[in-house]
Design a protein that fits this description.
The protein is an alpha+beta fold. It is about 20% helix and about 15% strand. About 20% of the residues are buried.
Length: about 140
């Protein structure tokens, strides 16, 4: 889920509000585990990824006005040897990152967040991702 931070709202509070509005998952503030790196997009947005934990089998109820599809992905999928996929493009001196999942490539910024989640939460590393670029189609 994603959206703007309302005046007086923290990134964590905004993420929990958006989580409820977009996928119908209501979590309390103590469900927030922490933040990943801020990511500045080529289109001028700054994204602060918030990581939260839902106990048990969380039931998602995607809002069809805001969400085309919602997927459950096992953290073990992020441990595949082809994660992440990095490639060079002539338009940037930064590597473009993507994560192969569900028969597709999840590009930055989401792909960068998934990769950092793996590195920090699963592997216990202090991996940064703000230097990874987005594919050209996402620059607008």
């Amino acid at each position: 889920p994603g959206g703007r931070i309302d005046p007086g709202e923290s990134a964590e509070a905004a993420a929990l509000r958006e989580l409820s509005e977009e996928v119908g998952l209501d979590l309390q503030a103590d469900a927030v585990i922490g933040l990943l790196d801020d990511y500045a997009t080529r289109s001028g947005y700054a994204i602060t990824p918030v990581v939260a934990w839902a106990e048990g089998e969380a039931r998602l109820r995607p809002n069809p006005v805001e969400v085309a599809a919602a997927y459950r992905v096992s953290l073990s999928e992020l441990e595949r040897p082809d994660v992440p996929r990095l490639r060079s493009i002539p338009e940037s001196d930064r590597p473009v990152i993507s994560v192969p999942l569900l028969g597709a490539h999840i590009h930055a910024p989401t792909g960068a967040f998934l990769y950092q989640l793996r590195e920090v939460a699963i592997r216990g590393l202090d991996t940064r991702v703000s230097h990874y670029d987005q594919p050209v189609f996402a620059w607008r």
